[in-house]
Fold Acetyl-CoA C-acetyltransferase/acetyl-CoA acyltransferase.
Amino acid sequence: MTAYVAGVASTPFGKHPNSSTRELFTDAALEALEDASLSASNNAATTGG
């Protein structure tokens, strides 16, 4: 299996009392896809860490 880092993003550090973990991850994942010039429909997997 081959993996590529094609785009990166993160949410701002700090407390986010009005956002769930899922919302924070989704925001960062969509921004990373945009950074990589990809869309969710042509992405096989997204991981965070």
Remarks:
- The chain has a mean pLDDT of 85.
- The radius of gyration is 12 Å.
- The longest helix spans residues 21-35.
- The chain is about 30% helix and 0% strand.
